[in-house]
Amino acid sequence: MARLPNPVWLRTFEAAARHLNFTEAARELGLTQTAVSLHIRSLEAELGEPLFTRAARRLGLTELGRSYALSVRQALADVALSTSSLFGPARRGILRLRAPISSAAYWLAATLPDFAADHPGIPVRLVSNIWDDGPAAGGVDVDIRLGRGDWAGLVTEKLCDETIVPVIRAGAPEQPLPALQAHQLIHILGYEDNWPRWFAAQGLPAPTGGSLYSVDTTVAALQLVMAGAGLAIVLTRFAQGAIAQGAPLRLAGPPIPFSQAHYLVRPERAAPPGAPAQLYLDWLRARLAADAAG
């Protein structure tokens, strides 16, 4: 990076250029007039050019000074805006969620308008990931994972059990379950045993042929199904969420229990959740309880 002038000098220069008066700039910055003069002289020496014209009882900007003042003012405004948006008081009211990409796309994102209706005025930042077996991420208030709840160094709370179900493109003819074996079966990496388990639960042998498609997310798997590439087996929650969002899909068979669940995770020594996070967690638990009861 190119060497920059002292930021204190730049801040002093911006104020002096705006007021065209060292005394007023000093008052704004809480400095002495002598300190302002020293900062300006130091900056001019660093740049090798005068920035001000000095006449009796009158201070002006040189052409270079006028151009530089615009650039410095914009740069300082950009820093102030970034600081305010990332670290300012408003940030303390943001609800920061993290979840696997398919959980975010086909479940959590669709629930956020309902949360906002119940708790208006809370900004939400939802980020997602594909694989997450490491430590809990910093910078989030609510961290939701799909797994078996055995992540080292993390405190876990099971939010909801899950089932899996086969899905096919909407409009495909109804078929008996054994006929599904003849279709192209799409696999999701890390969950290749889902198809054999599902067929076994129906009392059917597992297909022996290889799969043409293997993808790393439910999002990609369902896109392939909608394109007519075959069938996928996904979380029932995700399939129902996609269908509710208008995806041209339908369930192709009954659900079976899944060995993984959605968990809330946090580091062992994490601070208690802030007010927005606690509101969301209470709301989410109540919604899941109502869904399970209904």
Automatic annotation (TrEMBL):
Gene Ontology MF terms: DNA-binding transcription factor activity; sequence-specific DNA binding
SUPFAM superfamilies in the record: Periplasmic binding protein-like II (SSF53850), Winged helix' DNA-binding domain (SSF46785)
Occurrences of domain HTH lysR-type (ranges): 5-62
PROSITE patterns: HTH_LYSR
Signal peptide: none
Keywords: DNA-binding, Transcription, Transcription regulation
Top-level taxon in the UniProt lineage: Bacteria
One GO term (biological process): DNA-templated transcription
Family, as annotated: Belongs to the LysR transcriptional regulatory family.
Name of this chain's protein: LysR family transcriptional regulator
Source organism: Ruegeria pomeroyi
